[in-house]
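Input (structure):
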């Protein structure tokens, strides 16, 4: 399975990424700001999504909103 970020760069487990857009998190009541760095991502079975932890919350992010560091 080939997982890529918004720019087409390949992603792997444990990579660090940053957000390229402000995202409102449903249910948590927080907004993740553009440029927020997310470390140690985990790939999922869906090539369009990744798992990560931000502010001690497990969150699933779409790969179209992230850039590899």
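Output (sequence):
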């Amino acid at each position: 399975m080939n997982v890529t970020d918004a720019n087409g760069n390949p992603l792997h487990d444990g990579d660090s990424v940053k957000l390229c857009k402000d995202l409102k998190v449903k249910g948590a009541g927080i907004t993740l700001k553009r440029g927020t760095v997310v470390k140690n991502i985990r790939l999922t079975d869906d090539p369009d999504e990744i798992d990560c932890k931000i502010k001690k919350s497990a969150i699933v992010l779409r790969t179209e909103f992230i850039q590899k560091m």
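Notes: The radius of gyration is 11 Å. The CA atoms of residues 4 and 10 lie 4 Å apart.
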